[in-house]
Amino acid sequence: MRLDIPSIGVHTSLMQLGLNPDRTVQVPPIQSNSPAGWYQFSPTPGQLGPSVILGHVTLGNFGDGVFFRLAALHTGDRVEVSRADGSVAVFSVDQTAEYPKEKFPSQAVYGNIDHAGLRLITCGGTKNTTTHAYPDNVVVYASLVSATSASA
């Protein structure tokens, strides 16, 4: 799978992410040119429900992450996911929000919805220069607007 967000210059392959032993969602590795990752226990992008894709805002000594500009997305911006079968799901951004990590809206992000949705997640807020951690999460909510078939 592949993710393209033209308005912020994101063009990345998508790795599959699962769960860590403590049942938290895995994130992509912190390494040079680390791609974004699709949470495999969420719907395939374009299917009914909230598909979840995670990426880093920064990569430690490697510089900017794939979602460095994620918080700059605006309502109506286009997000495309090329799926494994060759089809493309096109989404339109509904909202970009930032939440303190301790108040992460798990139900709004992972809970059932009545349409094909997309959730893009990264870290946000001002980076702590001592711990190198971010206090917040940026979440982009988007809805499916069209999908091409694999034979198109």
TrEMBL record:
The keyword NAD does not apply. It comes from the Bacteria. The keyword Iron does not apply. Keywords: Hydrolase. SUPFAM superfamilies: Sortase. It holds the Pfam family Sortase. This is Class F sortase. It comes from Streptantibioticus ferralitis.
